Amino acid sequence: MSEVRAKKALGQHFLVDLNIARKICDSLSGGEIRLRTVTAVTAPAAASALPGADGQAAAGRGPEEPETAVIVAAKRGTGNAAETGAAAATGDAAVAVDGRTAEIAAGRGVAAAAGPDVVQSTEPGVAAGAGRDVAQETGPEGVSGIEPDVTPDAGQGAKAAGRCDVLEVGCGMGVLTQFLLRRDDIVTYGAEIDPESVEYLHAHYPEFTPRLMEGDFLKMNLRELFPGGLKIIGNFPYNISSQIFFKVLENRDLVPECVGMIQKEVAVRLAEPPGSKEYGILSVLLQAWYDIEYLFTVNETVFNPPPKVKSAVIRLCRNGVERLACDETLFVKVVKASFGQRRKMIRNSLRSVFGNFGGAEHPFFTQRAEQLSVADFVELTDWVAANRT
């Protein structure tokens, strides 16, 4: 069964433009992971960490709606020794999430296939973009673009220092995987829940097999699998994109960067600054710890079959905030409560959850949730903690 037919059989939309796939992969930075922390962000200071102040549009998907001297460097030892023959010898080496956590962690020294640098994207706004245009061709299976050679260089026995672990969520038929495997500044791992896609990846990318985990990304223990940190990338399924970002948020001390293609309206929502009607719960929670960039829009025509909505690629980069200057558990509750009745003033929204605060009033009570910045919500959370009855 061909790539396109396989994806159609699964009822999914298959990205058929390899130039777009290359652009997405170029948007992820490489090199060692450094997780930096800063002093706690107080209410007045938090505004400086917010993205979108320059008016950039943020992108979001679908209807789904944190410098001290602490530096963790994830440096790896051995590297590109995984030859095709060695990978094939593993047989059923796709990793079940509940069965081979220790094995995949122990095998992290196996590097991704090395090759020529990927041609850089020319799309404005993409940080990795260079000035070279990508030629347009028609590759196998009706895929538009250049079909890359991902055969590993058997002569490279050691991984260069400074490479980082990257986890691709939802590898599918390897449309992004093939470009990630060509990069020599990252070590690519994969998470794929669909058995048919796993079988396809085994057959077409045998060198990738030892680092392919078969299972549900949302149930994976990232701290166990990637104790030194990881970056995340993927063409995220529309129906779980918000859940993926919540998992990134839960592991924010491990994940300094995330690049994902999601439904355009959700992408816009995530990156919007305060004051926008698209600004919502996940916008506030993610922007508390990440700078969010809307990179570029992806049209329906580059998918087979074409979806009914446009997609977009966004990038989350850790802003360095270690902790908020408030009770962070309460912060989440306050944000969710404030947007629970977003057409009403915050007074009504919070009182419906926390009571009437003994009649006390905060200056923000006459505003709506979408008008408050992360710094404002930090201040409001402290006030709620001191005044709830």
Folded structure, characterized:
There is one protein chain. By secondary structure, this protein is of the alpha/beta class. Helix content is 28%, strand content 15%. It contains 13 helices and twelve strands. Strands 4-7-6-5-8-9-12-10 form an eight-stranded mixed β-sheet. The protein has a two-stranded antiparallel sheet with strand order 1-11. α6 (195-204) links the parallel β6 and β7. α8 (241-250) runs parallel beside α10 (281-289). It starts with a helix and ends with a helix. The relative contact order is 0.19.
Radius of gyration: 22 Å
Helix and strand composition category: alpha/beta
Q: How much of the residues is beta strand, in percent? A: 5-15%
Q: Determine the fraction of residues in helical runs and give it as a percent range.
A: 25-40%
Summed up, the helix count is 13
Average pLDDT: 74
What is the helix/strand order?
HEHEEHEHEHEHEHEHEHHEEEHHH
For the sheet with most strands, the description reads: 8 strands, mixed
Name the poorly predicted regions. 1-11, 44-160
Distance between the termini: 63 Å
Number of strands: 12
Widest sheet: strand order?
Answer: 4-7-6-5-8-9-12-10
The quaternary structure here is single chain
So what's the overall shape?
elongated
